[in-house]
Design brief:
Structural class: mainly beta
Distance between the termini: 36 Å
Number of strands: 22
Radius of gyration: 21 Å
Helix content: 10-25%
Largest sheet: 10 strands, mixed
Shape: globular
Length: about 325
């Protein structure tokens, strides 16, 4: 499977890691499909693809388990315009169970911050007032972290885990570390890269983003997922006493395995984002480029996403494997 380019972003639709596919092995199909479309249009009048878009405020805020929360406020722009004008003046507050915990302070271009460590299980509300605009509101909840531990019998391309409990769907992905170092507390650092391909035998995996290839450079035993795996454990099996043993397949040495428990809003945002990405890279059927699927947003009177997640990060490193041997 070709390589995916990864970028951090806080734009019209935010993400921790934005992925872009480079289908080099399908390039010929792409141009054939494009040529077919132009042939089909050649006998008709010109099509006006310009769309009138109402300018809106974009509010992006992902609550994390950190002590500082970040909000980005910008204005939406027409297509093809690559930068976003910031909201210069605003009043933005965060509420826990309808009680204000603090106001965001402007720290830079489009960047607002608030010192607060979210409470797991808490219900949060975001309220933003920009002069001359309707009030912006959104709600989310802070999820409990996934209870997962690493098991033995692993190697550089397969790692075994036990899932002890989970109350909501969670996502897992692999981060390739840019520095060969062992961490006491694993953290994602600047320069680390999202791995393109990952596979699993987890019985409750969501296969919406699988390909026809196998994981680990087409040499694994599981089907390849594009960058992320969504795990949706049935509600009757979310009890703390229900354990699930599974493995992940990928190039795993010198990497971080992230198990991300997410709010319902983050879950819908992530799945709709990956689905949209896959549509625009479907060269076999370019008619899908004109799909009507929207990326999920829960911002009332605006665009963007207000959601929450909590990460459980396990480092994979040969030095740690040596220590763990009996």
């Amino acid at each position: 499977m070709p390589i995916l380019k990864t970028l951090g972003c806080l734009s019209q639709q935010p993400c921790m890691w934005q992925i872009k596919i480079n289908f080099k092995h399908m390039i010929n199909k792409k141009w054939v499909a494009v040529a077919a479309l132009f042939i089909g249009w050649s006998c008709t009048k010109d099509i006006n693809l310009e769309q009138k878009r109402e300018r809106k405020i974009i509010a992006n805020c992902m609550l994390t388990a950190d002590s500082i929360q970040t909000l980005a406020l910008t204005y939406s722009n027409p297509l093809k315009q690559l930068y976003y004008d910031e909201v210069e003046t605003a009043s933005a507050s965060l509420y826990l169970d309808n009680s204000e915990v603090g106001q965001f302070e402007k720290k830079g271009y489009s960047k607002w911050q608030l010192k607060h460590t979210p409470k797991a299980g808490g219900s949060y509300q975001l309220r933003v007032q920009v002069p001359g605009w309707k009030p912006i509101e959104a709600t989310t909840s802070m999820p409990q972290p996934v209870q997962i531990e690493k098991k033995g019998g692993s190697n550089d391309t397969r790692r075994h885990f036990t899932q002890h409990s989970t109350l909501l769907p969670y996502w897992t992905f692999i981060i390739r570390q840019s520095k060969d170092t062992v961490m006491v507390k694993p953290l994602i650092l600047p320069g680390d890269k999202l791995q393109n391909s990952i596979g699993t035998n987890h019985p409750y995996r969501d296969d919406f983003n699988t390909t026809d290839e196998l994981s680990v450079n087409n040499k694994g035993t599981t089907r390849e997922h594009l960058a992320y795996i969504r795990i949706n454990t049935p509600s009757e099996l979310t009890d703390v006493n229900k354990e699930v043993d599974f493995f992940l397949e990928a190039s795993l040495n010198q990497s971080l395995v992230v198990f991300r428990s997410v709010s319902a809003e983050y879950d819908q945002y992530m799945k709709s984002s990956v689905q949209k990405m896959m549509v625009y890279n479907t060269f076999d059927d370019p008619t899908q480029w004109f799909d009507e699927n929207d990326i999920y947003t829960n911002i009332n009177n605006g665009l963007g996403i207000f959601a929450a997640y909590s990460d459980t990060i396990i480092q994979c490193h040969y030095a740690l494997d040596e220590v763990s041997k009996p």
